[in-house]
Write a structure and sequence with these properties.
Blueprint lengths: L2 E6 L7 E3 L12 E6 L2 E13 L12 E4 L2 H27 L5 E7 L5 E7 L7 H11 L2 E6 L2 H8 L10 H4 L9 H6 L6 H4 L14 H8 L8 E4 L2 E9 L4 E6 L4 E5 L4 E2 L2 E5 L5
Parallel strand pairs: 7-8
Antiparallel strand pairs: 1-2, 1-4, 3-4, 3-5, 6-7, 9-10, 9-13, 10-11, 11-12, 13-14
Length: 277
């Protein structure tokens, strides 16, 4: 099986597999120079060398060229400071060109050979004239990258509704698909304030327990089904999935809550419900 090392180019971002070559003793936290499609890059080791199944690989592996030197890391720090200063200038030039965009951050490659400008915009932006101006001013290769509001929140950071640092800034390396159906599945109110994160999109945390709720619901009746309870027949009105409780609107009285094993499905008395564990 091929041997790989997992690295990241920015903190808490997607991990990439690289061929460690002779550097199989690399440890988490070490800096390395790697070959990428855009040239040489400085990256940080997250997971040391290990063997993986070939099915996990997508195409040929790029190689770790060498360990990063102190000079490489000093260059990185220098160009990071230059990138911070470039943000306001890039935004100023964008305004001068009448471009409806907000510059989120600028990123220099570790050796200053490339400046990447990340921005958010409602629509596609024709930034060709802006790129020419920036290239003349900085005398380096300019790349423009339009990002989403979730990426913007990941970079800026903040505190979520739970009172803790945003998931995307602290540990979530990749964004996953989140849908309204997940909120419905977990009986979460669908008001925007209850299910939206600081980015204005659906909270990433909606996906964390969705599989568990989906599995648990298989052991419970559906809302609207006719069931038989110890107090007579009725219609399911609400489910407390975590506790395995079923609220039933009784035909001969008000609604009442029952444990799932105490009810059965009318027309299918053999269908046994259980409390999810």
């Amino acid at each position: 099986m091929p041997q790989v090392v997992s690295i990241q180019f920015q903190p808490v971002t997607k991990l990439y597999y690289f061929d460690p070559g002779p550097y199989t003793d690399l440890l988490p936290g070490e800096w390395v120079i790697v070959e990428t499609a855009r040239g040489k890059e400085l990256a940080q080791v997250v997971v040391p060398a290990r063997e993986v199944d070939e099915n996990e690989l997508e195409g040929a592996l790029k190689r770790v060229l060498r360990r990063a030197s102190k000079y490489d890391r000093d260059q990185k720090l220098y160009w990071e400071k230059q990138a911070q200063a470039a943000e306001s200038f890039c935004q100023q030039k964008a305004n001068e060109h009448g471009l409806d965009m907000k510059v989120v951050r600028c990123i220099y490659s570790y050796n200053g050979e490339r400046l990447t400008v990340e921005f958010v915009a409602e629509h596609r932006v024709d930034f060709r004239t802006l790129v020419r101006d920036l290239a003349r001013h900085y005398s380096t290769r300019i790349e423009m990258r339009q990002i989403g509001v979730r990426d913007q929140s990941k970079f800026i950071g903040g505190v979520g509704r739970c009172g803790r640092t945003l998931c995307c800034s602290s540990f979530l390396r990749e964004f996953h698909s989140v849908s309204i159906r997940m909120a419905k599945n977990q009986n979460i109110p669908l008001s925007s304030s209850d299910i939206s994160g600081v980015c204005g999109r659906l909270m990433c945390s909606l996906a964390y327990e969705n599989d568990m709720y989906t599995q648990a619901r298989k052991h419970l009746p559906k809302v609207g089904q006719k069931v038989m309870t110890p107090d007579g027949p009725g219609t399911v009105r609400y489910l407390n999935v975590l506790l395995g409780k079923v609220t039933v609107y009784l035909e001969n009285g008000p609604q009442k809550e029952f444990d799932a094993p105490d009810i059965s499905l009318i027309g299918n008395p053999g269908r046994v419900f259980s409390i999810p564990r």
